[in-house]
Structure prediction request, 495 residues.
Amino acid sequence: MIQLTHITKEYRFGEKSQTVLNDISITISEGECVGCFGASGSGKSTLLNIIGLLDSPSGGVVSIAGRDCCRLTDRERAEIRGERIGFVFQSFHLEPRYTVWQNVEVPLLLTNLKSTERAERISQVLAKVGLEVMAKKKASLLSGGEQQRVAIARAIVRNPDIILADEPCGNLDAENKETVMRILKSLSNEGKTVLIVTHDREAVKFCTRILLLKNGKIIDEK
Amino acid sequence: MKNRVHLLFMELRLCGLRMLVMALVASCLMGLSMTLMDYATSIPKALQTYIVFKAEFEEYEVTCDWMNSDELAFVEREVQEEGLSLEEIKGEKNHIHAKFKANNYEQCIRIVDKINTGDFAISSEAYTAIKRLLDDIRFFRELFWGLAIVSSVAYLVFIICGEAMILLREKTRLRILYYLGWSRYRIWGDQMIRFSLYMIPASLFAKLLGKMYEEHASAILRQLFSDEAALFIPTEGSWIMLGWMLLMTVFGVGLLLLWYLRRVLFSNVERVA
Prediction:
C-alpha cells in the first residue's frame, strides 16, 4: 500500500543543512495499524507529512498503491490527498464556527456528490464515531475528545484507504485517548491502513506494528 | 460545481463581517483617492478653459513702463512682428511709456512672454489675472495630487493589511482545505474570487461616495474662483476603479478557469501518453 524507499529529508539554512530523515525504507500493507514512536525532533511528523504528500522528500521514492508520488504535480498530489488519504491532527484543525455536520461535509463539497448522498455518508460516519446527536452543535462547543472524533469522521467521510494521525491523543485525557484509539483500530480492522505518529507509549497496544524513530532513522521495528 | 458554490457561500458566511468592514473602509478610501485624482488631472484643463472664457470678455491691453530707447525699439519690433503697433508713446530717456492692444488672449500671452525678460515693467490686468490663476492652478494641482497619493497609499496599505489579516485568520481553514485535497492553485483562485466578490460592491459604493465628494469640491471651487470655474470640473475617475475591480474579478475567475483547463488539457495528454 505505502512504500518508502531510501527516503531522506534535509532542511537547508544558508550553507548549513540539517538531516531530519536519513535513509528510511519501510513498507506498510493494507489494513495495518502502524505506530510510529519517537522523541520530539526524531522526524516522525516529517515522515507523516511525506507519506501524506504534504511535503516532498529530498531523496528516495514514496509510492502509494504502486504509484510513484514524487514526480506528481501539485494538483495530482492534492487529488491523491483528497481521495486516498485522511488526516487526523493533535489540534483537530476543525472550523470552530461550523457545526459538526458542516465540518464533516467540507471534504464532500469538493466532490460531485448530491446532497442526499452527502447526507447519507455524513450520517454514517457520525454514527461510527458516536456523534449523531451532536450533528447540529458548533465545533467550538465540543470537548477535546468530541472534537477529535469529528476530525476522524471528517478524515474518513470520503472513504480513504489511508488514515494518517499525528499525535491524535496529544490533547486528550485518558478516557478519550482510549476512545479515539479504539476508533482508529476499528478502521484498521475494516481494511484501512492506519499510521499513527505519537510519543504516547499507551498507544502501543492498539498497533499491529511499531516503528521506533531516533535522529531521523528507524532504530527498531516490532 | 454546485457543491463548490455551496462551499464558497459557507466561506463567505464565515468571514462576512470582516469583509463588510473591509469593503466599507476600502470604498471610502478608494472613492476619495479617485475623486482627488480626478480633480488633480482635470483642474488645470478646467481652469485653462475658464481663463480663456474669462479673457474673452476683457481687453488685452498691455502697458510697458520705464523703457529706454533701445528697449522701446525692441518692444516695437516684437509688437510689429505680430502685426500690431504701439500706442500712446510718451516720456523720454529711461522714462518712456507705451501701450499696445492684442487681438486675443493667446496673442497677448505670446507677446508678453517674449518681451517680459525681467528688465521691463509690464502691467496688464488680463496678464496679471491669468498669471495669478496659473499659480493657483499649480498650487491646487499639487495639493490634490498630494492628497490623492496619500489616500491611495492609505487605500493600498489598508487593502494589503486587511487581506493579510483575513488570510492569517483563515490560515487554519486554508491549511485544512489543503489537507483535504485542494491544490494551491485552487486555494489562491478561491481567495481571488472571494476578494473580487466584496470589492465589486465596494467600488460601486465608492462611485456613490465620489459623487458626494464632487458636490463638496464644487462648492469649494465656487468659493475660491467663481461659479463658472466649478462648472468646468469633470469627474470620471471612479469608473476607472470599477474597471480595475472588474479586472480583478476576471483575474480571479480566470485563475479558476485556468485550473480547470489545465486539468482537462493535462489529463488528456496523460491519457494519450
